[in-house]
Design goal:
The complex is a heterodimer of chains A (254) and B (337). Chain A has 254 residues and is of the alpha/beta class. Chain A has helices at residues 40-47, 70-75, 93-98, 109-114, 117-136, 152-164, 182-197, 209-215, 233-238, 240-253, and strands spanning 2-11, 14-24, 29-33, 55-60, 63-64, 78-80, 170-174, 201-205, 218-223, 226-231. Chain A has a six-stranded mixed beta sheet, with helices on both faces. A four-stranded antiparallel beta sheet of chain A has the order 2-1-4-5, with helices on one face. Classes of the chains: A alpha/beta (254), B mainly alpha (337). The A-B interface holds A 48-50, 69-71, 74-75, 79-80, 82, 86-91, 95, 98-109, 112-115, 119, 122-123, 126, 142, 145-146, 148-149, 162 and B 183-184, 186-187, 189-195, 197-198, 201-202, 204-213, 219-220, 223, 265, 308, 316, 319-320, 323-324, 326-327. The complex binds adenosine-5'-triphosphate (ATP) and magnesium ion (MG).
Chain lengths: 254, 337
């Protein structure tokens, strides 16, 4: 589904990613872990076109996408969430989720201004789908609230609903449960399980190891911009390199 | 549902359409109650400004960009129609459409490079363009008439029916303004409109959701320029005399002030902003004398205390209060167990 080959990214000469290569197989949940500053978010930004990789190839469904603008990549079926929450506070919760269906809403300004009947029907259908997505994330009763007034956990779920409402081919989640309480994390975890069992392909960045071990088919470990291990959760857990890079450092700071 | 609830629900569901119908009716009847040509002249001026502000609000309030140069597009429409009808003898209606199309092309040519800029840089660049345009109007006097202006623009007409008095002009100009209002309302209630709102909210997020941010900005810029051009054509055919002072940078900033006062990202607010700022000098003499001071002051105050603009800001405050109150009630009921 997604194949990274020697992806590197420098920020003004400083390497944030160097020669990262791995694949995200179709229908699986691949977890991307690594200590703070390892380059996980940078990698997601490179895949989604928010950043341009300095070198390397990114192939999505056998087509090169490295260097394409973000909206083109989105139109090919890649959706994402952001680590630092990017919802639209002034829009209602429902409208926020509807922006997740931008690629199906039609982009002709002229047609939109004439509000032809076919567009009205389409709007109605999209609205129903958005409401279903809100229902899945227990947000239906807040559909008409401005998203800005929601509690953090709710905002996080609005972003998830927005990313999943369009049934993307590939879903990139940057720390979806960070900052949530145990109960909320559990609910999101259940949602991710549902998404996985319905055949979604996902790349999940997460620090919550319990969640990763529970959900992931495969785990990719990044450290200082390098890919140091790939394997099943059990393999990775036993990998001495990973223990050193990840847990060793945690011991040192603890 | 009881009958009463059904009616209320129907009203709620079709509130936008009903408001448009109500406004149309009010405007239809207005000249029956108010036949003072001075007053009608003023409300016609409001309508002309409203057409510009509607487009500008899409660009500023929805797409989150800034233009301090829309008086130039307004002026291009006015001088374009004047020159096309008087110097080239073109019929007025096709000339208006032709000029709007040309202004659209010009806006496209300007927009593609200039909309790479954001924030203050974009403000400065558009302001600069307006200034260049104003200077051309003054200097190129064999074409524009220079500082003394351009005389003798004919009235618009349909067959032998001439739009030559305030009442007739009222129906013409407000008709166009309502049409523009309708098109803009449709646009913002569509997927494209949500894309615009997303763009204003967070460009990175909008792009990741599939909004082509560059082309969307350019398209809205072109649309708003064309609306300003049409308003300019109407302006020229209404007053039959135009001069550079109507299209200088102070007028350009006034349009932005109308957007801000009415409310960023509020289509209805555009009407209100155009109305309030056009009427202020009429209500109080002091506004006439110190117009630019007061407009500047209003801008600063609104941006400091209600950065979303007056109408939108107040509505949003209300909505937030309501949502928070609901949340509190929800929690209290929840804790009752
Ligand atoms: N826009 C930027 N400009 C310069 N340096 C950056 C930029 N974005 C990230 N970096 C640097 O790149 C490195 C990787 O950052 P990144 O955000 O990808 O880490 P991460 O693995 O997502 O960390 P975390 O777990 O804290 O989210 C860091 O050293 C960071 O300082
Ligand atoms: Mg990160």
């Amino acid at each position: 589904m997604l194949k990274l080959d020697g992806v590197s990214k420098n920020f003004g000469g400083l390497p944030a990613l160097s020669e990262v290569s791995f694949t995200v197989p179709q229908g699986q949940l691949t977890a991307l872990i690594g200590p703070n500053g390892a380059g996980k978010s940078t990698l997601i930004n490179c895949i989604t076109g928010v950043l341009q990789p300095t070198r390397g190839a990114i192939r999505f469904r056998d087509e090169e996408i490295a260097g394409l603008p973000p909206h083109t990549i989105s139109r090919r079926g890649v959706a994402r969430t952001f680590q630092n929450l990017k919802i639209f506070p002034r829009l209602t919760v429902l409208d926020n989720v509807l922006t997740g269906l931008t690629n199906e809403g039609g982009s002709s300004m002229l047609m939109a201004m004439l509000r032809l009947p076919y567009l009205r029907h389409r709007e109605r259908r999209l609205k129903l789908r958005a409401l279903e997505a809100l229902d899945r994330f227990q947000l239906a009763d807040k559909a008409n609230w401005p998203a800005g007034v929601l509690a953090y956990g709710d905002k996080k779920r609005v972003e998830l609903a927005r990313a999943t409402v369009g049934n993307p081919q590939l879903l990139l989640l940057d720390e979806p449960v960070a900052g949530l309480n145990a109960e909320e994390s559990f609910a999101v975890g259940e949602q991710l399980k549902l998404l996985r069992s319905s055949g979604h392909t996902m790349l999940l960045v997460e620090h919550d190891m319990d969640l990763v071990m529970q959900l992931a088919d495969r785990v990719v470990v990044l450290d200082s911009g390098k890919c140091i291990a790939v394997g099943t959760p059990d393999e990775v857990r036993r990998n001495p390199l990973v223990l050193e890079a990840y847990l060793g450092r945690m011991d040192a700071t603890a | 549902m009881t009958g009463r609830q059904k009616i209320l629900y129907f009203i709620y569901l079709h509130r936008t359409g009903l408001t448009v119908i109500g406004l149309s009716l009010a405007l239809l009847l207005f000249p029956l109650f108010e036949d003072n040509p001075y007053t009608l002249g003023l409300t016609n001026q409001i309508a002309i400004n409203a057409i510009i502000v509607l487009g500008l609000n899409l660009f500023v309030g929805y797409a989150g960009q800034i233009s301090l140069g829309h008086a130039a597009f307004f002026g291009l429409g006015a001088y374009g129609s004047a020159i096309a009808t008087v110097d080239f003898g073109l019929p007025a209606w096709p000339a208006m459409a032709l000029v709007a199309a040309l202004v659209g092309l010009i806006a496209l040519g300007i927009g593609i490079p200039i909309l790479r800029l954001t924030g203050h840089y974009l403000a400065m660049a558009t302001l600069g363009l307006n200034f260049v345009f104003y200077t051309i109007l003054l200097q190129w006097d064999e074409v524009t008439g220079g500082p003394s202006g351009y005389y003798g623009v004919p009235f618009l007409s349909i067959g032998s029916f001439e739009f030559n008095d305030e009442v007739r002009l009222h129906y013409l100009i407000w008709g166009v303004a309502l049409l523009a209002l309708l098109l803009c309302l449709n646009l913002v209630r569509s997927g494209v409109g949500r894309g615009l709102a997303a763009l204003a909210g967070d460009e990175t997020a909008a792009a990741a959701l599939g909004v082509n941010t560059r082309s969307t900005k350019v398209k809205v810029f072109v649309l708003s320029a064309m609306l300003a051009s049409i308003a300019g054509s109407l302006f020229a055919h209404t007053y039959s005399f135009i001069s550079p002072g109507s299209f200088d940078i102070f007028v350009a900033t006034d349009f932005v002030i109308m957007v801000v006062v009415g409310g960023m990202g509020s289509i209805w607010g555009s009407l209100l902003g155009a109305g309030l700022i056009t009427m202020l000098p009429e209500w109080m003499d002091i506004f006439e004398t110190y117009k630019d001071f007061i407009h500047g002051g209003i801008l600063v105050l609104v941006l400091m205390f209600l950065p979303q603009g007056l109408v939108t800001g107040l509505i949003e405050m209300g909505k937030t209060r309501l949502a928070l109150r609901k949340a509190r009630q929800g929690r209290q009921e929840g804790s009752g167990c």
